[in-house]
């Protein structure tokens, strides 16, 4: 029993995502400089900053789209610095992108099913799925989780922009992820769609941690418990949402003055 308790204690102390001294150079340009971040399992964090602050480059390094020039990235204690993207996906890391990457000519259900199938062991099976197939059941649960049940059979090309964003979240949830990177999920959404997004993000299972990049602070600060501010490729400030929102330096740098 003591060994089990020790193992669980050690698991709880392992960071979900840990970056140490991550730097990314593009020629002579430093897009990231000595970035160090630790995110706990289940933690929800916002990474904020103006355009060019290095936020998307940070995501690209975490997902393996870019490899860091220097520094290390650990995912639940494992060094994944040099891993290709698919190996990171296998370990439970997911991501959404600023530009939608969906199969517009397929239905909502087919998009979600393909995402579930793609990360399953049976992804190469040639058998036609049945209604009670485990992946079909998982598909239906994800569609419900992102509030798209009423349009499950609709072509993705016919969805409103906000519904396509919701579908992207469903794809990121396929295959029981442990951590998700959301890249500006509220971009282009109406006020009503933003409220729907907030409800979806706050309803995610508590064991799934995430980092959200978002320019809409009214969305970002409502769905996270910690905030990292970036400026010119460096960590500028970290704190709770209330601390960041009321910080005079943040207001001046990011908001251009006071924020109501």
UniProtKB/TrEMBL annotation:
Residues spanning the membrane: none
Keyword annotations of the record: ATP-binding, Nucleotide-binding, Transport
- A Gene Ontology MF term for this entry? L-isoleucine transmembrane transporter activity
Q: Does the keyword Transport apply?
A: yes
Please state every residue range assigned to the domain named ABC transporter: 17-257
Biological processes annotated in GO: D-alanine transmembrane transport; L-alanine transport; L-isoleucine import across plasma membrane; L-valine import across plasma membrane
Q: Which SUPFAM superfamilies match?
A: P-loop containing nucleoside triphosphate hydrolases
One Gene Ontology cellular component term attached to this UniProt record is: plasma membrane
The reply to whether ATP-binding figures as a keyword in the UniProt entry is yes
Checking Pfam families in the record gives: ABC_tran, BCA_ABC_TP_C
Q: Which domain of life is it from?
A: Bacteria
Summarizing the function annotation, the protein's role is:
Involved in beta-(1-->2)glucan export. Transmembrane domains (TMD) form a pore in the inner membrane and the ATP-binding domain (NBD) is responsible for energy generation.
The name under which this protein is listed is ABC transporter ATP-binding protein
Q: Give the organism the record lists.
A: Bradyrhizobium oligotrophicum S58
């Amino acid at each position: 029993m003591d060994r089990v308790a020790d193992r669980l204690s050690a698991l709880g102390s392992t960071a979900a995502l840990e970056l140490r001294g991550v730097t990314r150079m593009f020629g002579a340009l430093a897009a990231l400089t000595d970035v160090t971040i630790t995110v706990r399992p289940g933690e929800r964090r916002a990474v904020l900053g103006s355009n060019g602050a290095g936020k998307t480059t940070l995501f690209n390094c975490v997902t393996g789209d870019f490899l860091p020039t220097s520094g290390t990235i650990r995912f639940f204690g494992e060094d994944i610095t040099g891993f290709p993207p698919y190996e990171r996906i296998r370990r439970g890391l997911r991501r959404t992108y600023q530009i939608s990457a969906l199969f517009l000519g397929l239905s909502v259900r087919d998009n979600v099913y393909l995402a579930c199938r793609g990360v399953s062991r049976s992804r190469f099976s040639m058998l036609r799925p049945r209604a009670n197939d485990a992946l079909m059941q998982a598909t239906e649960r994800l569609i419900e989780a992102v509030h798209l049940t009423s349009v499950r059979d609709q072509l993705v090309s016919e969805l409103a922009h906000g519904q396509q964003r919701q579908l992207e979240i469903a794809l990121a949830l396929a295959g029981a992820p442990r951590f998700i990177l959301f890249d500006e999920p509220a971009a282009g959404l109406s006020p009503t769609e933003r409220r729907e997004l907030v409800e979806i993000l706050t309803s995610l299972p508590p064991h799934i941690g995430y980092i959200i990049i978002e320019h809409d602070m009214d969305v970002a600060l409502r769905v996270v418990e910690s905030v990292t501010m970036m400026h010119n490729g460096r960590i500028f400030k970290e704190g709770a949402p209330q601390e960041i929102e009321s910080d005079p330096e943040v207001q001046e740098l990011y908001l251009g003055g006071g924020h109501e």
